[in-house]
Amino acid sequence: MIFRTATTGTRPALRRVRTTVAPRPLRHRLGPAAVEEIPFRASDGVRLGLTRVETGDSGRPAVLLLHGHTASADMFLQPETRNLVDVLLDEGYEPWLLDWRGSCRLPYNETGQRYTYDDVALYDIPEAVSYIRGRIGDRPLFVVAHCIGSLTLSLSMSAGLVPGLAGVVSQGVFLTPKLAGRTSLRMTVAGELLKGRIDHIPVDFRKVGLRSKYTPLFALASRRASCPDPTCQMLHNSAWGTGASLFVHGNLSRTTHDRLAELFGPAPLWILPHLRRIELARSVVRWHDTDHRYRALPPNALDAAGRIDTPVLLLAGSENGLWLDSQKLCHDVLARRQPQLDVTYTEIPGYGHLDPFLGRGAALDVFGHILEFLGERR
């Protein structure tokens, strides 16, 4: 049973929180002894997932990996490809993986407490960084972040909550989110039309069935689709109904393509108001204006970007069908407004939004840029 409370101000309604449910197991090909699953709970009570990959070498620099919304740490561990964790291990790094509260390994998007990206920026990322620093001592700590993981990290960084990082690789979007006009319009219309009717948009048609309230959404996603798989249609052809595309189809291996419903979960509609405010501002803005708990976060992260004290590599695929040229825009804006910052931009030809990590050729085409950036600063 779901319990609802009255909404006051901008505070989201709360529902029963399944904070005791452990994250579902990660899928990987590493030895069991090499993967340390750490019980980790944010200070607001939400259980998260934190994983350390044991290397046997206590002197390695650490790299924290942050997934996008509805994805999980699985996106960095795909057993069917040479993944980012494999590459980091071979190059002498100690990988750490955070499943923040938007992970599909956790229950919060469907059955847990509603949240905004403020919560991720204030609790999840800074507290994970603090824990890791307590374990690694004075070794360098890098962060590689994707999509909303990167966007919320930018809010944490501009708030001064994660100082002293050795370097940050931001993939897809950072301080200046930019959506296509039709994507923004569809997001706004969908949020208004579906508000009060459904909580989330699923990606796995097998779980909802043909006779469900979600059938029209899958039917809409299938229009002009070249792939018959409903999950691929929802992600590649529609991006949860927004009309955007999340990857270049030919860049995925068949195995990864068949695992899309495992790698990505349902998108919560109740997060849309915050996402729309961010997109309209073309900046990462705080949602909570009156709740004193969030005063540590700046109202506008771009205005506070001068507090960023670490080198940043802005990475993006040339065919990013979701965030378009947000990273190039971010580089240009920061070069003009904060020229003292160490920010570089690299574009990956022929790649979209997700395939820079999920693509079968990512180890050859993408990961070298990440390793070069980390290697110059380790």
From TrEMBL:
For this UniProt record, the keywords arranged alphabetically read as follows: FAD, Flavoprotein, Hydrolase, Oxidoreductase
Q: Which Pfam families match?
A: Abhydrolase_1
| Names of required cofactors | FAD
The answer to whether keyword Protein transport applies is no
AB hydrolase-1 domain ranges (all copies): 61-153
Q: Does the keyword section mention Coiled coil?
A: no
Q: Which InterPro entries would you find in this protein's record?
A: AB_hydrolase_1 (IPR000073), AB_hydrolase_fold (IPR029058), Cholesterol_Oxidase (IPR052542)
**Gene3D superfamilies assigned:** alpha/beta hydrolase
Q: Which GO terms describe its molecular function?
A: hydrolase activity; oxidoreductase activity
Q: Which PANTHER family match?
A: CHOLESTEROL OXIDASE, FAD-DEPENDENT OXIDOREDUCTASE 2 FAD BINDING DOMAIN-CONTAINING PROTEIN
Q: Which family does it belong to?
A: Belongs to the GMC oxidoreductase family.
User: Can you say what this protein is called?
Assistant: Alpha/beta fold hydrolase
Look up and give the organism this protein is from.
Streptomyces adustus
